[in-house]
Amino acid sequence: MNINHLIPSGIRKVIESYTTEIKKLKERPIIIAIDGHSSCGKSTLSKDLAQIIGYRHIDTGAMYRAVTLYLLRQEIPLSDPTQVAGALNDIRIDFQRINGANHTFLNDEDVEKHIRGLEVSSHVSEVAAISAVRRFLVEQQRVIGQQKSIVMDGRDIGSVVFPEAELKIFMTADVDVRTQRRYEEMIAKGSKESYDTIKANLLHRDHIDSTRSDSPLLQADDAIVIDSSTLSRQDQLNKAIELAVKAVG
Ligand code: DC
């Protein structure tokens, strides 16, 4: 997907004025970790930033969602960590770019649509709290990150997966702004879920993500906070580009 039309002239000027630094980001590749709550714009920002600076974007939430989809389809009881751990051997997750968009593949099936539905959304936090699942996915994320040139978003990227990441961004936003975004996203996909159901689901996930014992969502000490409540997509991108440029020195 070409997002050039999203780049207003102000930001375009920023990019043009950073041509040398963006070149540096390519020559001296770094890891950019973007963590934060659900639906505060992490994936969109990560995608936009990766495209502008020529990095690969990895949405680690999609990996947890793909595992959840597999477990639900196989009717594996999520409350039984031993059975869940056993099932992980049969799961292979890949990403492919199709028409400019990242698609998540589960055992060679394009599951991008399936993993975004409310059923997976309702169970994914429970699955993400299982240590065996985290170990399984963190290992794969670290392998992907060996090549650097990566923008990876999630909940524990700056704190656990890549504590040495050159740039860590922690995103947050007002819960009603987040709910409205998710609601519009779901409606656009044909969902009939109410605003209140979506808000309850977000709050429930925030609670589980922040209170689980293994790698809870927390802001790394050296992370830079972006509150996206009142920032446009372009403003967020602009800020992230400046931070990436600074990080590369
Ligand atoms: O970003 P998302 O809403 O697609 O994430 C789905 C779930 O996965 C969310 O409840 C938190 C969890 N997750 C996680 O625990 N660690 C990550 N690195 C990414 C996502």
Q: What characterizes the major β-sheet?
A: 5 strands, parallel
Apparent shape:
globular
CATH topology term = Rossmann fold
Spell out which ligands are present.
2'-deoxycytidine-5'-monophosphate
- Spatial order of strands in the largest sheet: 2-6-1-7-8
Any idea how many domains? 1
Q: Helix/strand-derived class?
A: alpha/beta
- Approximately how much helix is present in the residues? 40-55%
**Contiguous uncertain segments of 5+ residues:** none
The fourth-level CATH homologous superfamily is: P-loop containing nucleotide triphosphate hydrolases
Average residue pLDDT: 92
The CATH C-level name is Alpha Beta
Q: In angstroms, what separates the terminal alpha carbons?
A: 29 Å
Indicate the proportion of strand residues: 15-25%
Number of helices: 11
Radius of gyration: 18 Å
Helix/strand order: HHEHEHHEEEHHEHEHHEH
CATH-scheme architecture: 3-Layer(aba) Sandwich
Q: How many β strands by DSSP?
A: 8
Written description of the protein model:
It is a single chain. This protein has 249 residues and is of the alpha/beta class. The chain has one domain: Rossmann fold (3-Layer(aba) Sandwich), CATH 3.40.50. It has eleven helices and eight strands. A five-stranded parallel β-sheet has the order 2-6-1-7-8, with helices on both faces. Helix 4 packs across helix 6 and helix 4 packs across helix 7. The structure holds 2'-deoxycytidine-5'-monophosphate. The site of 2'-deoxycytidine-5'-monophosphate (DC) has 14 residues, from helix 4, helix 6 and helix 10.
Summarize the structure.
The protein is of the alpha/beta class and 249 residues long.
